[in-house]
Amino acid sequence: MPATHHKVDVIAISGLGGHAFGSFKERDSEYMWLRDSLPNDIVDDDDGLPVARILIYGYESTIPNSDNLQGIEDLALIFRRRLVSLVNTPTAKPMILVAHSLGGLIVKQTLLLISKSPTVEDHKLSEAIRGLVFFGVPQAGMDVEALLPIANDGPNSSLIESINSGSKALENQRQEFHEYLETRDLEIFCFYETLLSPTPVQNENGKWTMDGKKKYLVTKRSAIDCHRGRETSTHACPIPSTHSGMVKFSPHDHNYDVVRERLVPLARKAAMHKAILEMTELQTTSLAPNEARLSTDEQQSLIELLEFDQIDTRIRSVKTPVGLTCHWILQTVQYKSWRDATMLVQHHGFWWIRGKPGAGKSVMMKYLFENSKATIIGAKVISFFFNARGSILERTTLGLYPGIIRTSL
């Protein structure tokens, strides 16, 4: 992939006891969807070239005969260092984190760590992470009964116990993460398993085999718990597979199609967020006369990245007032005072309208917007209409920014 096409990083982290590469590879095959399919699905609209760099991250979490004492916070600190190394480069890109099982708990702990850090590099990292894709992440714990005998009271048994259902550590993390999400415009997709998983059992020769009783290792409730009660078919989606198999897709796999339909737009939005920041810098930074500016084609490319399918959906759906229904507001002292001060550039204040749901605020605002475009001479009138029932871009500041920047150009 040419460096000029690199617009987003997709970083995958494996689960408990998983191999960084093997966890996402089809069984008994060389096919690995992160390497063989996903890059060809996240492409530039103009030339069809890949724009995503796919990275995998592994860590030590073997269960039998382990001498490792590290817990979730230790693993998160190491993962944070790796991510910081990516943002501390001139070519840093927005990130989408894809996590399976324990990997998702490490991701959550990493986000909590950087949210409490005052350093510039952690702030940059926090801003760079634009979305999460979780597969079977035991946010309220998982069934580890069959795993504890394998650890055999070794140093790593504390890690396994910490992710058990009812774990106090996970409950604390869950509460903190809910509060964290209230301060962040972060889109999350949670996939949950729907098939029972085989569990390990020790045979008469002392060898561990996967012939034990089948169980749901991570329940639906546990897997989608980060959504704060919001269970939608878009953001919480079943994968008809076992806990381990839910990230092992085959070529032309319908389950991969379901994941792709959510992951690809998320990556595109992350790239668009980067374009918004670059466009904002172009508008607010005064360049020296001899400093190189972006070419017209480069600027147009950035502008196109600001577009999304539903950008004008809400304003188009707002009805036009009947007759002179809204005409009265133009005659009010409050509106005239605000309008006149605006035309004379005497203030940059807001004129605020509030009312009960369904009272007609959107109809009123559309009327004022159209009237302002026609009557406020010499001023650029920009707008963005939020849609509470729409997509993430329609109801958050992630859509507001490209909306107002596009209409201001």
Automatic annotation (TrEMBL):
Cell location: Endoplasmic reticulum; Membrane; Mitochondrion
Record keyword Ligase present: no
Alphabetized InterPro entries for the sequence: AB_hydrolase_fold (IPR029058), NPHP3-like_N (IPR056884), SERAC1 (IPR052374)
Pfam families linked to this entry: NPHP3_N (PF24883)
Lineage: superkingdom: Eukaryota
Membrane among keywords: yes
Gene3D superfamilies: alpha/beta hydrolase
Residues annotated as domain Nephrocystin 3-like N-terminal: 325-390
Principal location listed in the UniProt entry: endoplasmic reticulum
Keywords (A to Z) from UniProt: Endoplasmic reticulum, Membrane, Mitochondrion, Repeat
Name of this chain's protein: Nephrocystin 3-like N-terminal domain-containing protein
Source species taxonomy: Eukaryota, Fungi, Dikarya, Ascomycota, Pezizomycotina
